[in-house]
């Protein structure tokens, strides 16, 4: 993996879509790879911060920053550079309702944006509006910021899932992973772990999708990564 610092934003204006689930699991996956990882929590609910406080001492360490305080929001984002020297990946958990200037501010100096989405009509519409803002307001493509979607809590062969598939096909944005609707993630939150760190015979099914995400994030060739991983993810969705 690259030794340069990469900043990965987990964002969606819609609340309850699983931003903290993605942020905490991604941080734990990176840490397990021996990659110095920092987890910034901008959400007032502080879900990522509470998860980190429960993290067992025998698990790979993650540098946590509670950035949700009002005082932090007014500080220039150069303070993101103030992390331990060994940190190579910065995962940023954001609050719901990001828009306008605050959304632009959060995307400054970002390398990649991951957008979790739930398969419901309300979430699909909210996510469509959010992605429009990322493309038109924040100009993420012009700035060469990698953008991908994670389909969260999905169940195949449902009308809502078919609607989600149709929506994603129109975006021409890669769907990197599909997270199952499973209690495995609830258990991981309770234990301060990633889903790959809990003892379960079913964990391998979930780990495979996280490996897709990490492979995409770490790919040297962005164009090749988007096409290859998109095809692979679509194959996983239909299995």
Briefly characterize the structure.
The protein has 239 residues and is an alpha/beta fold. It contains 9 helices and 7 strands, in the order βαβαβαβαβαβαβααα. It has a 7-stranded parallel beta sheet, sandwiched between helices.
Plain-language structure description:
It is globular and about 45 Å long. Strands 3-2-4-1-5-6-7 form a 7-stranded parallel β-sheet, sandwiched between helices. It has helices at residues 19-32, 47-53, 70-73, 100-106, 121-136, 159-171, 184-191, 203-218, 222-237, and strands at 6-10, 36-41, 63-66, 87-93, 112-117, 146-154, 175-180. The longest helix has 16 residues, at 121-136. The protein has 9 helices and 7 strands. The protein is an alpha/beta fold and 239 residues long. The chain starts with 5 loop residues before the first strand and ends with a helix.
């Amino acid at each position: 993996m690259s030794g340069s610092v990469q900043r990965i934003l987990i964002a969606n204006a819609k609340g309850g879509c699983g931003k903290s689930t993605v942020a905490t699991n991604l941080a734990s996956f990176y840490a397990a790879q021996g990659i110095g990882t920092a987890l910034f929590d901008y959400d007032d609910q502080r879900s990522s911060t509470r998860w980190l406080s429960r993290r067992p001492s025998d698990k790979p360490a993650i540098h946590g920053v509670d950035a949700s305080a009002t005082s932090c929001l007014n500080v220039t984002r150069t303070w993101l550079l103030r992390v331990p020297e060994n940190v190579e990946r910065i995962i940023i958990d954001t609050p719901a309702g990001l828009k306008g200037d605050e959304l632009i501010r959060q995307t400054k100096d970002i390398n990649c944006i991951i957008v979790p989405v739930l398969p419901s009509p309300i979430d699909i519409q909210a996510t469509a509006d959010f992605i429009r803002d990322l493309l038109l307001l924040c100009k993420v493509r012009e700035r060469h910021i990698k953008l991908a979607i994670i389909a969260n809590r999905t169940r195949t062969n449902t009308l809502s899932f078919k609607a989600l598939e149709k929506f994603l096909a129109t975006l021409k944005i890669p769907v990197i992973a599909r997270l199952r609707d499973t209690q495995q993630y609830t258990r991981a939150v309770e234990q301060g772990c990633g889903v790959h760190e809990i003892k379960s015979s079913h964990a391998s099914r979930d780990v495979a999708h996280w490996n897709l995400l990490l492979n995409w994030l770490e790919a040297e060739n962005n164009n090749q990564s988007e096409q290859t991983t998109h095809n692979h993810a679509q194959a996983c969705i239909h299995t």
